[in-house]
Specification:
heterodimer; A: about 375 residues; alpha/beta; 11-stranded mixed β-sheet; 12 helices; about 35% helix; B: about 600 residues; 26 helices; about 0% strand
Chain lengths: ~375, ~600
């Protein structure tokens, strides 16, 4: 064999390998502290300048809470905490919230990682076992499930709205393990090409009528997820009984994936979707999909997004800062624009997902939900999997 | 003393091969079998992280009638998928390597795209195309009228058909290497004896390819048993549930993930894998399947004559159905304001992708990890398989079989097994680092790399290495100068397949990737679950383009590696250190090299 082609070949292979392996060291993650964001108006750049003054005039919090926030920011910078890692429910809808945090507190970057279910549980267990902690904040609807991995922290800027005072303990844990700065509400999604939203039912029980046969789309309730949570709540809040569930199971087009269920609604595969989350519907409408969100007169689905401080968080001051930050009034207004429902009564949007328009009068109890899941999951499996 | 020294030296030299096998075998157990053992143990523990021992999950799963119902359902889907896919893949492998059919390049490109398209989006694309009421295909077939059908992709037939298409690409890329190394002199001898062309092919060529074919069958069967995305998208709407769905149910139900129940289901997959491997070894027996020799190997192509247009038509039809239609749907989705839109197409999704630092950074990081992991996997498996064939015995079986062990652990369970091993050992402090992720990715694709190499290695006789040794070359020189060079086409194909799989794998990086460096699959998972499916589609279109570019590079490398044999030195007397490969008295050797250029 001639050596020149062989040399060329080997050089080519080596060069390609060099290029590709060098790419593996590329770090373009959001924690790149070399690109500290510009200081937000009214604030000073705390990174390196020694100043930690933050403009909290729009936050509408008490003086004590404001002082606490400023102290947390100073402590975070002094300790070199330049990142907050949040294990959140998957999704991009809250990115404006995360960006606002980075803008308001220069020198600290927020990184959100979508983690739920078994991967989240395994990650938390692994971090605890290896003492290689990554997560600072855990954001998840199933708060009590993760109490072994979080520690109490009393959020000073949080207050329960009067409308939900009956459910105060479900929004702010009495032992300070979690607070829920916003809710996720879900109603009925309607494809406006297939039907007039004015013809949509006003109560969930109407969907068990045979005129809805083949016109309803759902995420498979027999497996854990949005669909199962929706069906559980509709039973728990009294909107459905088992006969209603059985009828809906017969009439529904079942999708194995929540995203698929939402797509099916947008494409007009069915007329309505049960448990269409407001953030998803808002995104679809903005993208031009022929969908509209309808809230029932009562019994709309509510999910509380609990925020918790992870035990052993590598950036505890920055993590606490984020927990406080989400309750600022002007930040709650940003949340409202994403399709989530802020708990702050003064930050309510003029949209169907507001506390008033969604007629939120019931918040599910986590412990009761877990028990109900164990009780009803076999029914869902029987109805939807045919076991 | 001299006698003792001589005896010791003799025993050591005689047992050198066995000692090497023992060393490699121990390494194989530590690397590949330890995660499997961790999950097996986990089947009898309350949690892999804490708690005591219990038989309850084992009993609950194995005494549950539903377990067996979905097991048979899954096996049925697998058999219905793997056998037709193997026939189609073999057909196209023969067309590409053994015939003068037109459009052979189209077959290779089609198969590469098939494998490059992530299974989730392949299934979603077909779901959009073949939906009974609003699917694009049905709207065309109904001439735009409303109604249902005639195609319903969310059905048994749809699920199996899409699975067949997907498996075909996978199998083709594994078979193309061994098929390209076939020596036509075997066929010529058969034809000379009076056999027809078809009889010769089925009677001489296919049997010799048994190791390659059986290896591909096994790996494809297990991959289909573990497939989750296609059954979830196309099967669940039709009430079809499979084993991976059951694993998903166990891992995500109740207050805590039911790891032990999921592990028991994996034990079922492990038993199936062991049975398949046992069958393979029984069927192979002690036969040899070498097709490469030191004599002038003959290759060349069959002249299809009047069948050329028909084969070209079949190629085009297959390409359109397997890739053209779903790729069209995927591209359409990536240009849509929301996934499934039929108008108002826009480039904003691609603008978003190309301008997003996180996504572009993920592309680069993923390419690096995938390339490195694939390279390490191919090199390590080549060395291990070479050591395994030094000497028959249980150590050889262990080395060979251990590389397939991780196939029994689908997705998250494999990641969990690796995590358990890492946390239990001295590497616990390395959790969350790129090193652990690289190890996990390497372990995840070892079965693929193994099957890419094993069939091709079986075709290379040990006599070629012995000839090198006799000529004065060292064992290492024989391995590198003879074996590695002959394996190069299969190794490159294996590297490409591993690269593609690693670029799209989700479960392992979801659990083990460093939080500061996000792999592309994790980023896309976020986009998909948040409803930004059209952006996720745009990411995958860009990924497919990247993979096609890498495939072209691999093709170029294969061409350069094989075409370097065209020019040869004039025959000269044997010199110490030269190998048989330096001497090529048969001009047809050039056609051997040209035959592997596809």
């Amino acid at each position: 064999m001639s050596r020149n082609p062989r040399t060329l070949t080997l050089s080519l292979i080596f060069g390609a390998a060099l290029v590709l392996t060098s790419c593996s060291s590329t770090n373009a993650g959001p924690t790149d502290s070399d690109t500290a964001p510009d200081a937000a108006p009214g604030t000073s750049n705390g990174a390196g300048s020694g100043e930690t003054t933050v403009d909290l005039s729009a936050a509408n919090i008490s003086e004590e809470a404001a002082a606490h926030v400023e102290q947390l920011y100073a402590d975070a910078l002094a300790a070199g905490e330049d990142t907050v890692t949040v294990y959140a429910t998957p999704g991009q809808q809250l990115q404006p919230l995360y960006d606002a945090f980075t803008d308001m507190f220069p020198g600290i970057t927020l990184q959100a990682q979508g983690m739920i279910g078994a991967p989240l549980n395994a990650a938390l267990e692994a971090e605890a076992a290896s003492n290689q902690h990554v997560a600072d904040v855990l954001q998840n609807p199933n708060g009590p499930r993760y109490f072994d991995f979080v520690e109490p922290y009393e959020v000073e800027s949080y207050s329960v709205p009067d409308e939900l005072s009956d459910f105060a303990d479900l929004l702010a844990d009495p032992d300070h393990y979690f607070t829920a700065p916003y809710l996720g509400v879900a109603g009925l999604g309607v494809n406006t090409n297939n039907m007039d939203p004015a013809d949509a039912p006003s109560s969930w029980s109407e969907l068990s009528g045979d005129e809805w046969d083949g016109r309803i789309g759902v995420h498979d309730p027999s497996v854990p997820g949005v669909g199962q949570g929706t069906f559980l709540q509709l039973i728990m809040n009294g909107s459905w009984d088992e006969d209603d569930v059985s009828a809906v199971a017969d009439y529904s087009v079942v999708k194995g994936d929540h995203a698929q269920a939402v797509q099916g609604l947008a494409r007009g595969e069915y007329d309505v979707m049960i448990g269409a989350p407001a953030p998803d519907m808002k995104s679809m409408v903005e993208d031009g999909a022929p969908v509209e969100q309808i809230m029932m007169d009562e019994g709309n689905i509510v999910v509380t997004y609990k925020n918790m401080l992870v035990s052993g968080a590598p950036n505890p001051n920055a993590a606490k800062l984020f927990l406080e930050f989400q309750n600022f009034e002007h930040i709650q207004q940003i949340v409202a624009e994403t399709g989530f429902t802020p708990v702050n009564a003064d930050a309510q949007p003029n949209e169907v997902w507001s506390l008033e328009q969604a007629n939120i009068t019931f918040v599910p109890d986590d412990v009761e939900t877990e028990a109900k899941t164990a009780e009803l999951a076999p029914l869902f499996v029987e109805l939807f999997q045919g076991r | 003393m001299t006698t003792l020294r001589t005896w010791t030296r003799r025993q050591t030299s005689l047992k050198r091969e066995r000692n090497l096998q023992i060393s490699i075998g121990i390494v194989a157990v530590l690397l590949f079998i330890s995660p499997v053992i961790a999950i097996m143990i986990g089947a009898f523990r309350e949690s892999p992280f804490r708690g005591g021992w219990t038989m309850e999950p084992f009993v609950q799963v194995l005494t549950n009638e539903w377990t067996y119902h979905i097991l048979w359902q899954t096996i049925g889907i697998t058999v219905a998928t793997v056998i037709p896919a193997m026939i189609i893949a073999t057909f196209f492998a023969v067309i590409v390597t053994r015939t003068n059919a037109p459009l052979r390049w189209l077959i290779t490109v089609t198969m590469a795209i098939l494998v490059a398209t992530p299974p989730l989006f392949y299934a979603i694309s077909w779901g959009l195309l073949g939906n009974a009421s609003v699917g694009l295909l049905n709207e065309i077939l109904r001439f735009g009228s409303t109604g249902s059908g005639p195609i319903d992709i969310e059905s048994w037939g749809g699920l199996v058909a899409v699975s067949i298409l997907r498996s075909t690409g996978f199998m083709f890329l594994l078979l193309i290497g061994p098929f390209s190394r076939m020596d036509r002199s075997l066929e010529e001898a058969s034809r000379t004896s009076g056999a027809t062309a078809l009889r010769s092919f089925f009677g001489t060529q296919l049997p010799v390819l048994f190791p390659a074919i059986s290896g591909v069958l096994i790996i494809s069967a297990v991959a289909t048993l573990e497939a989750f995305d296609i059954p979830m998208i196309l099967g669940v709407p039709a009430g079809i549930y499979v084993l991976p769905t059951e694993i998903y149910y166990y891992l995500n139900s109740q207050a805590q993930p039911m790891y032990s129940h999921a592990s028991v289901v994996s034990l079922i997959l492990l038993v199936i894998l062991v049975l398949l491997l046992y069958w393979e070894r029984k069927a192979a027996g002690r036969r040899h399947f070498t097709t490469v020799s030191g004599k002038g190997a003959k290759s060349g192509v069959w002249d299809l004559g009047p069948w050329r247009p028909a084969v070209a038509a079949v190629t085009i039809v297959f390409s359109v159905i397997a890739v053209g239609l779903p790729l069209f749907q995927l591209v359409l989705g990536s240009l849509s304001p929301y996934f499934g839109a039929t108008g108002n197409f826009t480039l904003r999704n691609f603008e978003f992708v190309l301008n997003d630092d996180q996504i572009m950074g993920a592309f680069a990081y993923t390419a690096g990890i995938a390339a490195t992991g694939a390279l390490v996997a191919v090199v390590v498996t080549t060395i291990m398989m070479w050591v395994a064939r030094l000497r028959r015995g249980w150590w050889a079986v262990l080395i060979d079989s251990s590389q397939l062990a991780t196939m029994a652990l689908p997705g998250l369970l494999l990641a969990l097994g690796i995590l358990t091993v890492v946390l239990a050992g001295p590497l616990a402090g390395m959790y969350g680092t790129s090193a652990i992720l690289s190890y996990a990715m390497f372990v995840a694709v070892i079965p693929l790399a193994s099957r890419s190499i094993s069939g091709a290695l079986a075709q290379i006789p040990a006599e070629l290495e012995e000839a090198t040794r006799v000529s004065g070359g060292s064992r290492a020189r024989a391995m590198v100068g003879v074996v590695f060079r002959l394996l190069a086409p299969s190794a490159l194909n294996g590297w490409l397949l591993c690269f593609v799989v690693l670029s799209g794998t989700l479960a392992v990086p979801l659990l083990l990737s460093p939080r500061t460096n996000t792999l592309l699959s994790v980023r896309v998972f976020d986009l998909y679950t948040s409803g930004s499916v059209e952006i996720a589609a745009a990411v995958f279109v860009v990924l497919i383009v990247e993979i096609l570019a890498v495939s072209a590079l691999v093709w170029l490398l294969k061409y350069l590696l094989t075409s370097t044999g065209i020019r040869r030195r004039p025959s000269s007397p044997a010199q110490p250190g030269h190998t048989m490969a330096d001497f090529d008295p048969d001009p047809s050797m050039t056609r051997v090299q040209q035959g592997v250029s596809s």
